[in-house]
Amino acid sequence: MTVEIHTLANGLRIVTEHMPGLESAALGLWVSAGGRHERVEQNGIAHFLEHMAFKGTQRRTALQIAEEIEDVGGYINAYTSREVTAYYARVLKDDVALALDLIGDIVLNPIFDPREIEVERGVILQEIGQAADTPDDIIFDWLQEVAYPGQPLGRTILGPAERVQSFGRGDFDRFVAEHYGPGQLILSAAGAVDHDEIVRLAEAAFGHLKPVPTAVAQPGLFAGGEHRVIKGLEQAHFTLALEAPGYRSEDIYTAQIYAMALGGGMSSRLFQEIREKRGLCYTIYSQVGSYDDTGLLTIYAGTSAEDLPELVGLTVDELRRSADTLTEAELARARAQMKAGLLMGLESPSTRAERLARLVAIWNRIPPLEETVARIDGVTLKGLSEHASALGQGGAAMALYGPVDAAPDLETVRERLAA
Predict the structure, then answer these.
(1) Measured between alpha carbons, how far is 197 from 159 in angstroms, rounded to an integer?
(2) Going by DSSP bridges, is the β-strand pair 236-244/397-402 parallel, antiparallel, or unpaired?
(3) How far apart are CA 58 and CA 69, in angstroms?
(4) Which residues is 301 bridged to in the sheet?
(5) pLDDT of residue 237
(6) Which residue of 18, 288, 294, 323 has the lowest C-beta tally within 10 Å?
(7) Which DSSP string do the residues of 328-345 spell out, in sequence order?
């Protein structure tokens, strides 16, 4: 498999990986414009813009966009995160040019028809309402908000309903002008692709774009805090977040392996102690979510009102105990899980295309797979213990939802973690 990178004269970066034996390809545009790039009055516009890309262009109606990709058996989709908006497709190898033309068209030529804006506004307001009615969804927005209060990184990706209700065509045009320059675009493709052909097609589709100044995102400063909503639900939902490294940090693999050992699978400490031994919940897990300059170790569990205080206490105890009691066997197991997840995922061209784009955005290069595996293998038990010992020193964030009256407050959690 061959990875190749090329940068157009205007700054747009292209990365491809040919995967022999495949009859299909995945490709897309990754734009460095997500929720954290919005000003407060723009909150939610990156996601709204992503929706509008599929509502018609200067060359195609919304129906034609859907029909053209499905006429060849492919699919096209998009997502918005806090740091990126992605538009991607999966097609057979003979239809790569069509897919790239479609992606380029919806990203560069949306018409922002006022009638379609109103239609999609209703869709997004329904999406916001659905998220608000989903406890194990909305609670993570609250957790993010108290982790990074008053900051773009702490705001919801969907935006508040009142903002979404006010966006018009001019708002979309301004956001595109600010954030959709060629220097903010990465075209990534993997599978049955030819690098030179992708470069040729990209030059034709995007070579005319003029560079725009790169917007610098406001740094994410973890602060911590508590958000508690008492409501008569069947389950009490609990989340706890501690600051973790950003993805540029040398400690990122240590943090990820620690999260795996703590609560990343059925053999993990939290799952075994709290679910298997004590039966206090059905779902409990931990994970690391990283950004350019910061990150979060997040723990989630859903349980009964009666069991919540004990569950919270045991969770904090496991965090505290892990600094001194993690074993080589746990490290080896978590390391194996992480490598297996990485290598299994790379069998998918879609996963490869997304990984390529992410690595180019971070490093402007693609580290060899052997380098990544070596960094995973380089995590030591001493490093894990030091990482666990430092958790919580910078504060903590906690969000609870449901019958959570009896849950300890954040100060009690912090004191128990430091004990």
Answers:
(1) 39
(2) antiparallel
(3) 17
(4) 238, 284
(5) 98
(6) 323
(7) HHHHHHHHHHHHHHHHHH
